Automatic annotation (TrEMBL):
An annotated GO BP: phosphorelay signal transduction system
Gene3D superfamilies named among the record's database cross-references: 3.40.50.2300
Lineage per the UniProt record: Bacteria, Pseudomonadati, Thermodesulfobacteriota, Desulfobulbia, Desulfobulbales
Chain ranges of the Response regulatory domain: 2-118
Tree of life domain: Bacteria
Name by which UniProt lists this protein: Response regulator
InterPro entries listed in its UniProt record: Bact_response_regulator (IPR050595), CheY-like_superfamily (IPR011006), Sig_transdc_resp-reg_receiver (IPR001789)
Keyword line: Phosphoprotein, Two-component regulatory system
């Protein structure tokens, strides 16, 4: 399974990617919406994990643009802000709260969500 992690926190995405690879998943990462969009033009991912709050372009807008480029990918949103508004917007965008995680994200919880949304 191939995963793309998108978060403006470098330490977070690189650590998550490393931990996923130790568990046998292929994990790429991006620290901006633009970088993530560039990555999906050359690579198809099973699941994209996106931070909702990022500079320049929100995670929700990144997801909307990705869907036009590569329909069929699955998405999980995460946020460290935890506001009710973010939760409502994020969970509505991906089809329910089961596709939404609050930071700090435990790797086991994230892997469980990835398996759930991908059908594995």
């Amino acid at each position: 399974m191939r995963i793309l992690l998108v978060d403006d926190e470098y330490e977070l995405v690189t650590t998550l990617a490393e931990r996923m690879e130790l568990r046998g998943l292929e994990a790429d990462w991006a620290t901006s919406g633009d970088d993530a969009l560039a990555r999906i033009t050359t690579t198809s991912y099973d699941v994209v994990v996106i931070d909702i709050k990022m500079p320049k372009i929100s995670g929700i807008e990144v997801k909307r643009r990705m869907e036009k480029i590569r329909p069929g990918m699955k998405y999980i949103f995460m946020t460290g802000h935890g506001s009710e508004g973010d939760f409502q917007e994020g969970s509505t965008e991906v089809g329910g709260e089961r596709y939404y995680l609050l930071k700090p994200v435990a790797i086991e919880s994230l892997l469980e969500k990835i398996n759930e949304v991908s059908g594995h």
